[in-house]
Amino acid sequence: MSARIGAAVLLAVFAIGLVTRTGITHVVAQEKATVIPGPAADITNPASSSEVAVLAGGCFWGVQGVYQHVKGVTSAISGYAGGDRSTAHYEVVETSTSGHAESVQITFDPRQISYGRVLQIFFSVAHDPTLINHQGPDWGPQYRSAIFPLNGEQEHVARAYIAQLDQAHVFKKAIATKIELNRPFFAAEDYHQDFLERNPGYPYIVINDLPKIAELKKTFPDLYRASPVLVAASSKP
C-alpha cells in the first residue's frame, strides 16, 4: 500500500497500463462499464428513508469512490466482510486467509435510489462481476465479487438480478458474484477511507479507479454527483 515507486518505474507502469497497490505490474486490459438493464425485481416500498447495502468488488478504494459520487448515497465506508472481527485488519486480510473481502458499506436514501439501482451500478461500473477472486491487477479471495444482503428482500433482489443478467447473456461469461449471508461488516483503517479523493494522483488510482468515476458519469448521468460524500466530512462533530 505504501510502496515507493521511482520515476523510471512510473514511466514503465504508465506505458503498460496497470499497477497494483504494492507496485507489482501486470498487463491487463482496462474494462469499461457494461451497459446493463435495470433489475426486473426491486424493493419498491422501502420501510425507511435510510437503507444499507454491503458490496465487495475488488479494491475498496475504487468501489468506495464510485458510490461517493452517486446521488442518494449518504455514506460509503471501506471495510471488510466475510470473516471474523479478529481478522478484520488490512495486514491479515491481505494474507488471503481471513475469509474477508474488501467491501464497502453504502448507506443510501431509497427514495432517491433503490437497492436494485445500487446493484446496477455495482454490476455495470464498480467492477467486473464475471471475474473470480480478482479485479484488475489485484488477486486473491479478498478481492472477490460478493454481495452481503442485510435482509431477505435484499437477498431476493440480488439473486433475481444475477439470474436476470445471466439469462440475458449481458456478459460474455457467467456472473461469479457470491451471495454471502449473515456476514457482519467491519470498517477499515482510517487511512483507507476517502483514499481516492485524497490521493487522485496515486498511480493505482489514476489507472484503475478514476476511469470508473468517468464511466459512472457517462453511463448513469442521472445518478452522478460531482461532489462526493466523504467519510471525513460525515465524521465531523
Any overview of this molecule?
The strands form two sheets. Strands 7-6-1-3-2-8 form a six-stranded mixed sheet. With 237 residues, it is an alpha+beta fold. The protein has helices spanning 7-16, 60-68, 90-93, 115-126, 152-167, 195-198, 203-219, 231-234, and strands at residues 51-57, 73-81, 101-108, 134-135, 138-139, 145-147, 178-179, 185-187. The protein has a single domain (32-198, 219-234), classed as Peptide methionine sulphoxide reductase MsrA (Peptide Methionine Sulfoxide Reductase, Chain A). It is 32% helix and 15% strand. The protein contains eight helices and eight strands; from the N terminus they run αβαβαβαβββαββααα. Strand 4 and strand 5 form a beta hairpin.
Summarize the helices and strands and which ones pair or pack.
Layout: H1 7-16, E1 51-57, H2 60-68, E2 73-81, H3 90-93, E3 101-108, H4 115-126, E4 134-135, E5 138-139, E6 145-147, H5 152-167, E7 178-179, E8 185-187, H6 195-198, H7 203-219, H8 231-234
Parallel strand pairs: 6-7
Antiparallel strand pairs: 1-3, 1-6, 2-3, 2-8, 4-5
Helix pairs in contact: 2-7
In short:
This protein is of the alpha+beta class and 237 residues long. Helix content is 32%, strand content 15%. The protein has eight helices and eight strands; from the N terminus they run αβαβαβαβββαββααα.
